[in-house]
Amino acid sequence: MSTTHPLPSTQSHPIPTPSHSYRVGVPVGRLESVWRYIPATLLRYVTTLIRFGYAIRSEIGSLVGRIRVLCTKKHWGVDLGPLWETLPDGRLIRNERTDSRSRGTQDLVSVYPWASSIDLQFFLEGFDVGEQFVLGTLGKLTHTTVAASRSSPNQEVPEVTKPQT
């Protein structure tokens, strides 16, 4: 008596029953056959269209907030800080912090020319937090450098002090 066993390469794979389908009520065989006939370019197009829809929805959500902020502002520019510093001997020199903030915003606008004043304000607020982090004073200040950067050049900038512990 000879028993024949099929070779592993010629074995047929069992077709899963509808209870094993990925979606309830849709047999796996039908779902696979549908995906075989959809061209890859069409799938890429649909994927791109879905991503575009998500991007539009995200930007429309922030559009309302940006418009509200712009409408509450008197001036639509950003305050980079005082241009000059007065030395103890009375001489004026360029403020390095203001120059750094100015260079950063110029770099941002050169990479993203569509950036608005709100985007620049976000950047400068990140600059302030990064500055506090480097100085080791993040979350420990009584007067933050944000207030100092928003003061006019004629006002005296409050000295940054750590709270008494």
Outline the structure in words.
The protein has 165 residues and is mainly alpha-helical. The chain folds into two domains: 56 residues, no CATH class; 91 residues, no CATH class. 51% of the residues lie in helices and 4% in strands. The protein contains five helices and two strands; from the N terminus they run H-H-E-E-H-H-H. A two-stranded antiparallel ribbon has the order 1-2. Helix 3 packs across helix 4. The longest helix has 33 residues. The chain is elongated and about 85 Å long. The chain starts with 27 loop residues before the first helix and ends in a 15-residue tail after the last helix.
Task: Strand order, main sheet: write it out.
Answer: 1-2
Distance between the termini: 94 Å
Global structural class: mainly alpha
Beta-strand content estimate = under 5%
Please bin the fraction of helical residues.
40-55%
* Overall number of domains: 2
Indicate the low-confidence ranges by residue numbers: 142-165
Shape: elongated
Order of helices and strands: HHEEHHH
Task: Please state the average pLDDT score.
Answer: 75
Number of helices: 5
**Number of E-state strands:** 2
**Rg calculated over all Cα atoms:** 31 Å
**Largest sheet: number of strands, sense, barrel closure:** 2 strands, antiparallel
